Amino acid sequence: MTKPLFITFEGPEGAGKTSVLKALISELKPILGDDLITTREPGGNPISEAIRAILQPEDDNGMDERTEALLYTAARRQHLVEIVLPALKAGKVVISDRYVDSSLAYQGGGRGLGIDNIWQINQFAIDGLLPDLTIYFDVPPELGLSRVKANRQGKIDRLDKEDLAFHQKVRETYLELQHQSSDRIKTIDATQPLDKVVDDARELLLELLKTRKG
Fold it and tell me: Do 48 and 41 form a contact (C-beta atoms < 8 A)?
């Protein structure tokens, strides 16, 4: 059986990671076929999608910050059990749009709950499972938020509407996480044109895919 791989895409609002993933799927599918599984957090299954709807309404719903952190963690656990872990057990390549680093950045940093606190509650959910590669798409919050307002298809949710200071803390935390885990988390300059960002992400993915049969 080929080596399973778990890859995550991370970034602040407007970084373009979802657009990059969509662009790369058409290239990776002929290479990997049914071995390629793409998914997202929170979501990917009925329970996690239901939690997503609670977490990401258009307007503030009065949710407590710790409740928010716990709900993201619960959605993550169900996502792992239903999607990620079975796929990895079957030797597949899983690419997830967001994972635990999002909670560390948004709730730990942005909400000010503390990286260590968020890490502790997530350890119960992920049971030590970290990605083989995390691609972090870095963009200053001013640019990212302007992209969201100009290009976001559908609703702009309550996280998008947080003030600039919140989004600055999110980015600062992502950069801190990358510094602490530079072997796993690789940064791409997401201020570049989309085709260049796609090229950079493709290079990282293809390099990792070479290890699958090694």
Answer: yes
Give residue 154's identity as a one-letter amino acid code: G
Q: List, for residues 92-104, the tens digit of each pLDDT value.
A: 999 999 999 999 9
pTM above 0.90, yes or no: yes
What string of H, E and C letters represents the secondary structure of the chain? CCCCEEEEEECCCCCCHHHHHHHHHHHHHHHHHHHEEEEECCCCCHHHHHHHHHHCCCCCCCCCHHHHHHHHHHHHHHHHHHHHHHHHHCCCEEEEECCHHHHHHHHHHHCCCCHHHHHHHHHHHHCCCCCCEEEEEECCHHHHHHHHHHHCCCCCCCCCCCCHHHHHHHHHHHHHHHHHCCCCEEEEECCCCHHHHHHHHHHHHHHHHCCCCC
Fold of 5-209: Rossmann fold (3.40.50)
User: What tokens does 180 get?
Assistant: 């602490």
Per-residue model confidence as pLDDT tens digits over 59-100: 788 999 999 999 999 999 999 999 999 999 999 999 999 999
Task: For Cα atoms 29, 127, 79, give the angle at the middle one, nearest 5 degrees.
Answer: 45
Closest alpha carbon to 21 in 34, 4, 39: 39
Domain ranges of the chain: 5-209
